[in-house]
Amino acid sequence: MIQFFEIYVAKLPEWWPEMLAAAGSTLLLTGYAFGIAIVFGLCLALAKLSRNRVLSRAATLYVELMRGIPTLVVLFIIYFAIVPLGITLSALVAGALGLGIHAAAYVAEIFRSGIETIHRGQREAALAVGMTPRQTLRYIVLPQATAIMLPPLINMLVIVLKDTSICSLISAPEIMLRAKDLASTYFRPMHLYVLAGAMYFAMAWPLSLMARGWARRLGRGRHGA
Amino acid sequence: MSATSPPGAAAPRATPAVSRQGDAAVVTIEDLYKNFGSLEVLKGIDLAIAWGEKVAIIGPSGSGKSTLLRCVNYLEVPTRGHIYLEGELFGERLVDGRHVRMSERELASQRKHIGMIFQSFYLWPHLTARENVAIAPEKVFGLPRKAALELADTMLAKVHLAEKRDAFPERLSGGQQQRVAIARALAQEPKVILFDEPTSALDPELVGEVLKVIEELAAEGRSMMLVTHEIRFAQNVADRVVFIDHGVIVEQGPPAEVIRRPSHERTRSFLSQLLQDG
User: Fold this and answer.
1) Which residues in chain A are contacts of B120 at CB distance < 8 A?
2) Which of B75, B116, B139 sits opposite A135 (nearest CB)?
């Protein structure tokens, strides 16, 4: 056991700078992927709720499709199937795109149920004072829905953060890829994967705590203004 | 009566507004039908509300009176028939002599001239009383924020809630919430105010404060349509009482006539039941 930690003491100065740089990539990847998921997910949710049946069917189909396909498959399709079409994407861009459009399906469901939770009368009152549907969404529905949606959205962010690890399979230079490289260079897989796990946990745990804290605040009936 | 262009006339591609010349009515309801699926809720309503007139609409629950009110500002889209605001076609426009529904944007720019009070208030819980009142003046009418908030203060004072301006709706009683909702409608400077059973969701001891505010507004000569179960209140405030049953107007007239001396059996039995319960 002592030996196990002695190796960290000896090797961490060599590993740490590389792992830290990789953690930066992981965060960048998470940020872009989640940004794509939020924007695209909101569009999907609005399409699903739209009275236009073609639009809502298409969005529903997309959501169902994505929920039935593993993230990794989406990632490979984007990275390997699009390249022959003459489009070359860097591993980071392909990774963010793949994770983003996949997570968008889940984010869309969070948005949809959040928006549906807002009572119809809230919308009607907004329309009655002369707001357009767009203003109603922006000033009345989304501010109220956000408070409800925030905990599941943060949970989704945690999932995306952890899912970035599979981007190592398309050689995106993130934590998992760096850990794998170092593991084979130093023949210390156990140490490096434990280190990688600890780094993910250090990033994810505070987010989970935030989500839980927010959910508790909501449970007490505080408004989210 | 008909607002369509005469047949054979060189029809303009899009007429922006249809004017009913010399019309003294603020709201005109013309041959209004509303179905929900196979259920016929309104079956041919014709009604005109004159400027400054206060019309109380009474009738049994399920008679269609709330639906009628909701059709006036197109929260419900009529199955047939038309609404006019100040003589202008509401929610529709004439294209090549045919009635075509407006876009939601156009509809919003017409709706802002009609105030509506809901049975369950529907204040926005994430905004303070003051912000609830100020948001339409700011976002819909384009007032600067400061002016909108000042207008909100004025309107809250009118409903005797100036001191509650920074309270969130959850901190207000039902009666106070409804008064804020009235202030919110007043801030639109509406041409007509629609009251959809404004006191039905209130505890009995809170009804009075809301009715008092509505009476004050009535005394200012505002045009109002009021769906209510408060018969005595309708009698005091309304210029005209309209009794609706099964989606048609059964009878209408001055409150003294309709309420004291109803000429139809259906009105009589409805009123006697209501006055017994009250």
Assistant:
1) 121
2) B139
Tokens of B120: 């369950």
Residues 143-162 of A with CB under 8 A from B: 143-144, 147
CA distance A68 to chain B (A): 36
Signed CA dihedral, B264, B269, B272, B274: sign only: negative
B53-76+107-277 CATH choice from 3.40.50.300, 3.40.30.10, 3.40.50.10210, 3.20.20.450: 3.40.50.300
Q: Which residue in the set A119, A124, A129 is minimally distant from B184, CB to CB?
A: A129
Question: Has residue B32 got a pLDDT over 80?
Answer: yes
Domain A2-219: what homologous superfamily? MetI-like (1.10.3720.10)
pLDDT surpasses 90 at B129: yes
% of chain B residues with pLDDT over 90: 80
pTM (two decimals): 0.80
pLDDT tens sequence across B44-66:
999 999 999 999 999 998 889 99
Average pLDDT, chain A: 89
What is this model's ipTM? Answer: 0.89
